[in-house]
Design goal:
Elements lengths: L8 E6 L23 H18 L2 E4 L16 E4 L2 E4 L10 H11 L4 E4 L11 E4 L2 E6 L5 H13 L3 E6 L11 E5 L2 E5 L12 E5 L10 E4 L2 E5 L4 H9 L3 E5 L2 H4 L10 E5 L1
Parallel strand pairs: 1-2, 4-5, 7-8, 10-11, 13-14
Antiparallel strand pairs: 1-15, 3-4, 6-7, 9-10, 12-13
Length: 270
């Protein structure tokens, strides 16, 4: 069960990059900016999963989808909620097909399907943050208004207040600028999200330094994983506020336009 992304992480779905992520023939259609180094990528992946394991989270590694280099970014394909998973619909044509791949994986884990986004709607998981009783939904290049409307109908029925946010062009997803870091605490880049949208939360604001400045993985209240290079300024500010930060190198995944949260699909928290 997952209601609040600020709760303790207990189960997560990931996909170890083995072949598809390193195949340049598919990169242009899938927003992969640069071919990653295989050995270094896998070392970084192993480091990420080892930190989550040490924290006590169960790691479910789903084999990557052939021909889909972005399948390593499991976050975007589905949204886990208190009632099960919502099957999303990718906003980039090259990722279509990953939805069914992930649905099969979640169903095999015993997760019920709580709904699905239908054409012409698009929603990617990087644009959705469940924080307590609030669901932040980003309207971006990947999540359109029809998809957000469909998603809201599911989430409102689950008791969430849905707050839609226009995502600035420099961010692929809302999650690049904002993350839950506790049950009632958010990390947010300055000037990206209107103040009224953050009402009811303790917010740590950091300067915007890049497209994934606000992208971190919440392990539990005030403990998280961050990319040591891109999140450097944010890490310093978070630590000044008493947050424990596991800073690791995830530079090879930035070549695929992914931040830390993009690499993990939280299935259970609490």
């Amino acid at each position: 069960m997952l209601r609040n992304e600020g709760d303790r992480l207990s189960k997560v779905v990931v996909s170890r990059p083995c072949n598809a992520y390193f195949d340049p023939s598919t990169h242009t259609a899938n927003n992969i900016n640069e071919v990653a180094d295989r050995d270094e990528t896998q070392r970084q992946y192993d480091r990420l999963t080892s930190v989550m394991k040490a924290f006590g989270a169960e790691i479910v590694d789903v084999p990557e989808l052939q021909g889909h280099p972005n399948s390593v970014f499991t976050r975007d394909v589905s949204l886990c909620t208190p009632r099960g998973y919502i099957k999303l619909r990718m906003g980039i044509a090259g990722r279509r097909g990953e939805e069914e791949w992930m649905s099969q994986a979640l169903t095999s884990l015993g997760e019920p399907c709580a709904g699905a986004i239908a054409e012409p709607g698009t929603v990617e998981g990087g644009d959705v943050i469940l924080a307590g009783t609030v669901a932040f939904v980003g309207l971006s290049r990947r999540t359109n208004s029809e998809g957000a409307k469909q998603l809201a109908s599911f989430l409102v029925d689950m008791g969430y207040e849905v707050r839609e946010i226009e995502v600035p062009e420099q961010h692929l997803h809302l999650g690049g600028a904002m993350s839950a870091i506790g049950p009632e605490r958010l990390l947010c880049c300055e000037g990206v999200v209107p103040k009224q949208m953050l009402a009811g939360f303790d917010v740590i604001e950091v300067p915007l330094r890049g497209p994934s400045t606000g992208n971190v993985i919440c392990l539990g209240e005030n403990e998280l994983i961050a990319n040591m290079a891109e999140n450097a300024d944010a890490i310093g500010e978070l630590e000044r506020h008493g947050v424990v930060v596991h800073a690791i190198d995830l530079s090879e995944f930035r070549k695929g336009a992914g931040g830390p949260t993009c690499m993990v699909l939280p299935v259970e928290r609490g």
